[in-house]
Specification:
By secondary structure, the chain is an alpha+beta fold. The chain is 22% helix and 40% strand.
Length: 193
């Protein structure tokens, strides 16, 4: 009887706690979405962007070119920014005095991870899994947006002005030390739980 009790206790301690990981149901996780949207906000609130070289109340069309489909969000954010500055934003089929051509150089996230410890092990011979034993883990995620703007006269196609490159960066870093001590370092305004 003592052997069976000892054996059950040993198996009980070896099984440990395993938290199942659920994958995202959306194309981007909430952290990735916040990284990108807040990077766009940072690029538009840069102090150097306060002076815009068009007369107040001018009508403007926004035209975007980039490699990702996510650039439509950037276009909508810039249209809102122009509206806040007092410009009248027109859709592509409407007439406008100026056309703002935006070349999106980068709009995405990067992810990196460092791990020191023993990864979770699922055995085919033993009917239970060994949990991950983390000595140190670092999960780093960065959001970056970079674009440039050219302003053209809509009727003539003449280049009026080339604005400097706009850039916004965000980061979200999660550190785990000795199994369960965690530390979060981020410049996001809202952090999902």
């Amino acid at each position: 009887m003592y052997r069976w009790t000892s054996l059950l206790l040993v198996f009980g301690f070896l099984t440990g706690c395993v938290n199942p990981q659920v994958t995202t149901r959306t194309a981007r996780t909430s952290v990735e979405q916040l990284l990108l949207t807040q990077a766009v906000s940072k690029s538009l609130t840069n102090p150097s962007q306060s002076d815009f070289p068009l007369p107040s109340g001018a009508t403007v069309k926004v035209d975007l070119t980039g490699l990702t489909e996510d650039r439509t969000f950037l276009g909508a954010a810039i249209e809102g920014w122009l509206g806040e500055k007092g410009y009248l934003v027109r859709k592509s089929q409407e007439t406008a005095t100026y056309r703002l051509h935006i070349l999106v150089n980068a709009f995405g996230t990067e992810y990196g991870e460092s791990f020191l410890g023993m990864p979770a092990i699922q055995s085919t011979f033993i009917p239970f899994a060994l949990p991950e034993i983390t000595m140190y883990r670092s999960q780093r995620q960065f959001g970056r947006v970079q674009y440039s703007m050219n302003i053209f006269e809509e009727q003539t196609g003449k280049l009026v002005n080339t604005l400097t490159t706009h850039e916004g960066q965000t980061f979200h870093r999660l550190y785990t030390i000795l199994f369960f001590f965690s530390y979060l370092d981020t410049n996001l305004d809202y952090i999902p739980e």
